[in-house]
Amino acid sequence: MHHDLSADVIVDGAPLTTALLALNAAHEAELSPLDAPRLRHLVAQAFLAMRVGESCADADALLVAFDQDADYESPNFLWFRDRFARFVYVDRVVVAQAAQGRGHARSLYAALFRAAQDAGHDRVVCEINSVPPNPASDAFHERLGFAEIGRATLPGGAKQVRYLEHRIAEARQT
Asked: Where is the N-acetyltransferase domain (predicted)?
């Protein structure tokens, strides 16, 4: 079944900000805490920041990605910056529980892969928690063609992550 999805680039607005913060808060264990000033900073630094929603104030799904030049100090982002000269890093992708199974994450990633390819990037990278485990995200990213390229224990030791890469260079050449 094909889903005709329109994903919108995120623009600042109080109702949308509230919806995006609520979506993030519902998945804080997998993502990280976020407040309005931090959300505005992330969107301003983003290579691509998109959301899916029925209206300009809805947020059924969210994707925020940075390229290597972003002003971002996440240890996961820095891990990739230490290893690659160019990349697009998925900082967060989340779908509201009520909107799962509709193809939103897949459509957001398709838009990201096109934007990365158009900008001349050959890799999209991300991390997935291994402790605590996130088997749904593991399976989803594997279906999209991501492969593990490293692992780390984050400061404080409460989280362990797997670093993944999706190569898009071959797609750009065809």
From this structure: 26-169
Please state the pTM of the whole predicted model.
0.84
Q: Give the model's pLDDT for residue 2.
A: 27
Distance CA 32, CA 25 (A): 8
DSSP string, 122-170: -EEEEEEEEETT-HHHHHHHHHTT-EEEEEEE-TTSS-EEEEEEEE-HH
Query: Do residues 67 and 86 touch, judged by C-beta distance below 8 A?
Result: yes
For residue 96, what pLDDT is reported? 84
Tokens 């920041």 found at: 49
